[in-house]
Fold:
Amino acid sequence: MPGDPPAAAEALPPRKASLLRGNLLWLSVVSLLNDSASEMIYPLLPLFLTGVLGAGPAFLGVIEGVAEASSSLLKLASGVVADRFGKRKALVAWGYGIAAAGRPLIALATGAWQVLGIRFADRVGKGLRTAPRDAMLAESVAPEVRGAAFGIHRAADHAGAVIGPLLASALLLVVVGDQPHRLRVVFALALVPGILTFLVVMAKVRETPRAVAAGPAAPGRRILPPLAEMGPVMPRYLGVLVLFALGNSSDAFLLLRARQLGVAVALIPLLWAALHVSKMVWSVIGGRMSDRTGPRAAIVGGWVVYAAVYAGFAFAGVEWHAWALFVAYGLFFGLTEAPEKALVAALAPAAVRGSAFGWYHAVTGVSVLFASILFGLVWDAFGSAAAFLTGAALALAAAVLLPLVVPPKPVPL
Structure:
């Protein structure tokens, strides 16, 4: 907040020193706590919507698509504000606070439209915090280890996504009552880790020097920095990301497919936890691979894995297939999440890095809106196999195109 001292530039860890310190450490703790809260709810939400509130796959696609698209547009706006006024911590704190207060209200929902509103509020919080947080992370470590830093942060995020479902499963086993009542109790108790998230942000996270020095916008300056200010490669990179994102629908559909394959309701949170264990392991490996070979190679490999996993879901026929595919799906995240952000940080000039992360999240998130709606409609009309094969085909097309528009190892700025 305004009185916080900035993280000193000279405090950046040298290449061989421990990265897990300062903002990287505390933002990782924040993500762990926040995802513990979020993932107590998320893997159970498709079952709650379809089994308790009576929504279908198409409406689930609308909820997830609208939530993610609105979040992504706010990520763009918050990234611009962070660059203009240097108030990154304030945006991060507001974002986590709104999500912590809003998510548990799902426990009170009696209609699918109410869940849509609550998910929208939750994603508003995510939209406010994500681009400023990513810019703070990029500026809190040396450029040559950004991939590893983002990988560590994503690993902590996924660790929280393991803890959350395990807590949810434990609560489902001990809470007395029918299934709707037990689900509502789990949703309500997600308030506890959410409050802890906000407290850690307020107490431990510090502004970065660049954010403090940014200053207000000059008279006549554009409110929204155009992509042309971010170099010739960034627009092309974002274009390929849009192509991939059109086939990258909400993971809520994977949970519905798992249930279709026979995974019991009580085991769904454990299946989700297994996915995040795989994500956690591969995130650090993928981040370090990005630093050594360049992010492009890691991203292409991840998209090929995505295509293979989605094709697997299309042809899966028994319960164990769901477990195997969920574990393999974690490799995709490990090879893409940190490298994609490292590539944004490398391509974007430092003065507009927050805005660049905003553009990155905005274009991919808006694409997810259409992807989730399309996926739900194709599932309703032609079945789950057709929907998953469509996603696989788009991922392969993006994997072929990316090496044509992005150099193999951009030099960090």
